[in-house]
Automatic annotation (TrEMBL):
It holds the Pfam family BTB. It comes from Immersiella caudata. InterPro entries: BTB/POZ_dom (IPR000210), SKP1/BTB/POZ_sf (IPR011333). Residues 5-75 form the BTB domain. Coiled coil: none annotated. This is BTB domain-containing protein.
């Protein structure tokens, strides 16, 4: 790995460059292996790939994952109880599995008194979409698990948390997204529908997305008749 040739990435509209060992890139997935080693690709010949539509913050998380097997949560130690509270909201008769999946957890004491600076749920979703597209299965699994953990402690009855959840919903239905992500977010939105419905922006998304509307109805029906 140390003697591996460098592979350059030019990322995002700002064209920021990153260099990684080509063997490390190739080891992440079959898609990256072809990108780096298949000489019929210009990228393999030049040992350079330009990914204009990838956000550099997401790519940095990918790089961190390749070296450490994890990536930093942009909100590490920045949650606070006012936003990610511990009061369960159970508007639907959910199955035990669904209730456990989204039951809020008490944030650790270090989160108290600090403000939520960025939207971590959206961040994890974007990492998942990147990982799913490139077939980086371990990163996809990690980001989806972290997203689920964030949703467990989210309290969308709080305005800022509700805004972040709505951004996540909009992201999932603004374009074609991986089914696993869409299902997770749809089930969560159905579970927290009374809180999300308070937002005119959420209602607008619902009016404009038949897929979201159908998904919510399906989740509600399944939840009510699962027991």
């Amino acid at each position: 790995m140390a003697s591996s040739k460098p592979f350059r990435f030019t990322i995002g509209p700002q064209k920021r460059e990153f260099t990684m060992p080509s063997a490390l890139v190739a080891a992440q997935s079959p898609a990256f292996q072809r990108l780096v080693n298949n000489r019929s690709f210009k990228e393999a010949q030049d040992q350079h790939s330009q990914l204009e539509h990838v956000d550099e913050k997401i790519f940095i998380r990918f790089i961190e994952f390749t070296y450490t097997g994890k990536y930093a949560n942009i909100n590490e130690d920045l949650r606070m109880a006012k936003i990610y509270g511990s009061t369960p909201m159970t508007p639907l008769k959910m199955s035990r599995q669904s209730r456990e999946r989204f039951r809020p957890r008490m944030p650790c004491s270090s989160h108290w008194g600090r403000s939520l600076q960025k939207n971590s749920v959206l961040d994890h979703a974007r990492v998942f979409v990147f990982a799913d597209y490139w077939g980086v299965t371990r990163l996809a699994g990690l980001s989806l698990r972290l997203l689920g953990e964030e949703l467990k402690v989210a309290a969308p009855e709080r305005p800022m948390a509700r805004e972040h959840i709505i951004d996540l919903v909009e992201y999932c239905f603004a374009d074609a997204r991986p089914p696993m992500l869409v299902i997770l977010v749809t089930q969560y939105a159905a579970f927290k529908l009374p809180d999300l419905w308070m937002s005119g922006e959420f209602q607008d998304i619902l009016r404009n997305s038949s897929d979201l509307s159908l998904g919510l109805v399906s989740s509600i029906v399944q939840a009510r008749f699962s027991n």
